[in-house]
Amino acid sequence: MDVGNLADDVRTELAADLSETRLAKIERYRRAQDRDRGLAAHSMLRRLLSAVTGTPPAQLQLGSFCISCGETGHGKPFLDAPDGNRDVEINLSHSGEVVIVALAAPGVQVGVDAEQGRTVDWNALRNSIFADQEWAATERRTDREYRRLLTWARKESSVKASGHGLSLPLRHVVTSDAEGATWSASMPSGVGRVAGADLDLAPDVAAAVAVLRPEGWPDPPVVRRISIG
């Protein structure tokens, strides 16, 4: 499916999964491609949650909460269960033609981010995104453009897992390679610590999933990928 250029009948089908509030937010996106991608991402999220909970997609109650300001209506998404318990933790990301939804066990603070390859002026972003040691590490790579994009995805997934989002300066989220495709990230004081895993989706896509613990180092996430029709 070309998620940035949906057919009218597909838009209608996917929109039936979403709440009026979410549809209104998506309609405020300036670019038509971003509206279609948002529609695809949130429909997929609801369909996956429907498979987990048994509740039809349109009947699911989703909310969002921003830890930084303490307000609802924006920030990290959550499933608002009638009994107040969280049966599953959720996060999502979309970039270009890629849509990712992450589901995790209750209490696991999870974040996910995807960055489809594009032309980036890295020198202009260096001081706002990269710690000095991260920049130096990418400079030594033959695939430095991809590694910078992957470092960005790691950082974004980390701040999304925390619930703070981009209110946390990405430069102060410092990532380090671990074994295989896993990594860790030190966060600003009081936020917690992150372990993550890279996601191999496509040659031009950098993607990562992160889990956060308030204290101590979490184990790297065990990723199980599923496909839906």
TrEMBL record:
Transferase is among the record's keywords: yes
Per its UniProt record, what InterPro entries does this chain match?
Answer: 4-PPantetheinyl_Trfase_dom, 4-PPantetheinyl_Trfase_dom_sf, AASDHPPT_N, P-Pant_transferase_sf
Q: Which residues form the signal peptide?
A: none
Any transmembrane segments, and where?
A: none
Pfam families given for it? AASDHPPT_N, ACPS
- Sorted UniProt keywords: Transferase
* 4'-phosphopantetheinyl transferase N-terminal domain span: 18-102
Indicate the segments forming the 4'-phosphopantetheinyl transferase domain, all copies.
109-178
Query: What family does the database annotate?
Result: Belongs to the P-Pant transferase superfamily. Gsp/Sfp/HetI/AcpT family.
Name the record gives this protein = 4'-phosphopantetheinyl transferase
**Species in which this protein is naturally found:** Kineosporia mesophila
